[in-house]
Structure formats: structure tokens, C-alpha cells
Amino acid sequence: MSNRLRALALGLVGATAMAAPAFAVDLDVTCRCVIGGVNSATAEWIENSVIPAFEAANPGVNVRLNQFGGEDAQLTQQLALDFSTGAGPDVSAFDGFLIPSFVEGGLLKSLDEVAGAEVNDWSGWDALSEGSRALMLYDGKYYGIPLGTDVRMIHTRKDILAEAGIDADTWQPTSWEELLDAARAIKAIKPDSFPLQINAGVAMGEATTMQGYWLLLLGTGESVIDENGKFIVESQGILDTLNLYKTVYVDEKLGDQRAQLLADGRNRSFANFRDGVTALLLEGDYFYRSVTPEGSEFAVANRDEVQGWAKVPAQEPGKGIRGQDFVTISGGTGFVLNPNTDSPAEAWAFLSFMNEPEQLSAFQALQPRITARTDVEIPDSPFLTETSQTLLPLTTARPNDPNYNAVSSEIQRMTEAVVSGELSPEEAMAQYKASVTAIVGADNVVSLL
């Protein structure tokens, strides 16, 4: 019997329910989320809404949430180890960009391979937006269900901009130089501050690539790959991007150089923004909805009065990707099934249950966000509504390439070499070229110089 028929039989229309198993079934769920810590709302939602409702609808199935408080890269490493050894949680949070490399490495299977063909009959697929659907799709197969998508911007401390004589409500840089000028003005009145945060280095992992390097590179009119899917390993855009990092962290000390090199650097960047040490921080909308709310570790006092946002400008007007004046990039996370789960039917039932409108609406009540499903709206959140409407038309996405994760690691090493002062931009780019060529092969790279 399909999950939907079971639900109807039990009078639980819209929920995913299963016939009671002959023996008790224990499911483990993992996410990078800790109540009162990182992604607190996600942990609260799963612990206090999804699990109780699912267990009530599915007697004999017991679900436990593993709250993981480490960095994204640490969870990725743990899942790779677990999936390769037949261990790990039955259901796990997962960043969509990792899917190709995990699949090609034999570490992940499509949902229908794990839980059977009834996965394809889930009514929720039709409710996913086209862009969101692609987040967990690879070679025409679904490997997970997306929870939502995002956009990236400059988060601002309006109170500090005002101190520097800048109209915080209307400030919108139209070039890199205008962004630097604002940081310089703040540095002039607060010499001990680090006004500008552009993620760099290895420790921040994908946050360096997505929230830092890629946003700058898009502003030069380039991307990590060309129109033929080849990785660009040498270009003026790469040099200009690395030189901006050098200006910020080495030459003018506008950013916290040390924070880019420490294991907890991203958290330090959050603390800097909270404490007014940093006033301009390039991050995703995640920063607003998960990092700075009241009650969070890095909560910003009087947030909705002092925290604002601006679009990320191209290097110069019209020079951005596709000739844009402003740029952004979107990614997205979701949940996947462990290919080695001992309880595939129950694991799928839980995964689909948590992505039904009722449960997603409960999540939205805790933490409004850009949703994957078109039938679940963002509740009253002017910040998220305004940013999504403004930035989604400007966005782009990471390549659906199994080598991307390894290339991203080289991007992080390249930025770290520059912000640490170890290498010049030219030297770092040469090292990047050699490393990426070794990863993907000479036929899959291109030089634009």
C-alpha cells in the first residue's frame, strides 16, 4: 500500500503514515543544528514538531535527532566516512552541491534505489519550484528533498554606517571601490575595527567559495566554469578577485585576517558582526534567519533596527555576469537517505512527512525562509520577502559537476594563500591552475589569459 493510501486509511490526509511494524524501528536523523546554538530553529522544528507528529502517526517507529554542532565541512567528512562504512544516520541534512561527488564516489544512492519506486509517486514533487527541484537532482534522479533555497548579499550594521556619516537606509555600493570606500570610512573612525568581511580560507569551507570568492568573481563577469562546462583556471577575473582579497586583508587591514585562518573563523566573523567589529559582511540570507535572531548565540541586539542589507555590486557597473550591475548566487540544502539504512521504508516515510506543507509551515513559523515548495509561503518577514524578490532574478548556481567539491577546496586554498600573505595573487592562481588541472584533466580546463 502506498504511503498516501495508508494515510487516507488512518484518516491522516496530507501526512505520511505507515502500517505499524512488527518490531520497533529506530530511526536516526542528523543535521548541523543545535537547540540554542547553530541552526537552532531547525533543531527545534525537528525535535518538537516533526518527530512527535510522525511518531504519533506511525506507532512503533522511534526517531532520534542527532544535533551536530560542528562546521559544515566536518559533517560532510563524517557522512562520507559513515556512508562508506555502512554506518551513520538513516536521514541526514545534506548540501545539494555535494550530491554529484558523493554519487560518483559510490557514497549516495537515489531515493528510489534506497526506498523503492513509490518514492516517485510522492505528491510533493509537483509542488517544488523548478529551481528548488534541481538542488537535489543529479542525472535525472532525486537524491534528496530540498528544504529551501537562498540568496547572498551584504549584511550591514546600519548604526555603524551612520557613525561613519553614511546614510545607512540608502547606502548601495555600485562598484567594488564604493564598497571599499565605505569600509575605509568606518576604519577611519573605528581604527581597531575590521569593517569588511569577505569569507576566505580553508577553515570556512564552502562558505569561502559561495559567500566570498564566487560573489567577487561573478562581479568580474566570470564564473568558476565557462559556457562549455570547463573550469577556468587562469583569467583576469581570478586575478582581480584575489587582488581585492589582498587589498582587504593584507594591504589595508579592512578585514579580520586572523579570523580567515582559524578553525572557528566563521563563528568569529559572526561574533564580529554581533559586537560591531564588522559592519559589512557578505553572507547568505541564512545569516539573518539563523545566526542573528534573538536567542541565538550571535544574536544582534535590536536586530531589525540596526541590521540592514545591500546588493553585492559588480566590480564596475555593468561588468557583472550577464552584464549585470549586481550579483548573487543561490544554493540550497535538503535531506537525504543513508544508502545503507536498515529501515528504508520508514526513513522515506519520515523524509517525505517532514516535507509536507503542514510540517514546513510549522518550520516557517519558527524561521521564515525561501521555501522549496510553491504551496508554502514565507510568513510575515519583510527582510526575506524583499531580499528574495530583489535577488532571485539576479542569481546563478554552482555547476552540477562531480569534481566541483574538489575544485572548491582548491579555491579555498587559493584565497587562504593570498589573505595570509603567503603567496601573491599571481602565484596563488598558478598553484590553483596546476591543482585543478590535476583534478579534472587538461581537457577540462581553460585559460582566459
From TrEMBL:
Signal peptide: 1-24
SUPFAM superfamilies hit by this protein: Periplasmic binding protein-like II
Keywords: Periplasm, Signal
GO CC list: periplasmic space
First-listed, main subcellular location of the protein, grouped into a coarse class: periplasm
InterPro entries: Bact_solute-bd_prot1, SBP
Compartmental location: Periplasm
Family annotation (PANTHER family): ARABINOSE-BINDING PROTEIN-RELATED (PTHR43649), BLR3389 PROTEIN (PTHR43649:SF14)
Family: Belongs to the bacterial solute-binding protein 1 family.
Protein name as it appears in the record: ABC transporter substrate-binding protein
Classification of source organism: Bacteria, Pseudomonadati, Pseudomonadota, Alphaproteobacteria, Hyphomicrobiales
